[in-house]
Amino acid sequence: MVRLFVPIGLVVAFLATACVGSPSTPGNAAPAATSAPPTTQAASQSTASGWTRPMDVTPLTDLPSAATSVGGKAASGAGAFQVISQTPWPGNKVRVFFFGVQG
Amino acid sequence: MSGWDQDTHNQDTFGFHLVPTYNLISATYTSDYVDFTSKELKAHDGSSLQQFDAEEQQIVNQFDPKGSFPFLFINGQYARIGDSGYSPGLIDSMNFYTLHTQVSSGARTDATDAINAEADLITAYICHSTGGQPATACKT
Question: How many domains does chain A have?
Fold first, then answer.
């Protein structure tokens, strides 16, 4: 089923991984999200927090492994993700990007 | 994430009445682990709204050359293209804040179960990509 809008589950997931823990009151003025350009790919890259992004992860290929791997939570069949590459996108953080239309 | 707003898609799109969703046009997301951006290419009236930056265009050219949407890209390794995790019918005609409260409070309905399943799947992919960090979000 085609859906045009921002997946609510995506926002719910991000609330867990964000530094800013709680959503603002809707209507708050805030600067638009910006993205950093790709950086040089390396074996691993560190952030200011000391965390080092692993650049050697291979993609999960089945949902059961997603449910049992490090950090994985149970996934009950939602979504139809494809594995599009064996190689992580470059950068010092995990890149997530969404696009759609307001329709 | 801050600065988000509520939205609905246009009435009766694809046979659904009014489906609640987030508007992330003015949202800001900060994380030590994830670099997230989103773009809405067209407004409700069909006019152009946002444009890709160079990196986003590179991602789309490489992984979604037909420009199918919705498009969700995680770590360069996973993508969901032109599809969604559950039917909009599950949340059709629901008030945004009612649904938001249900999800936030842990209420169990068919809609919140679907939303949480989608969130868990996305979280699993992100957590696998970060090596299990942040632990507070990635613990089972």
Answer: 1
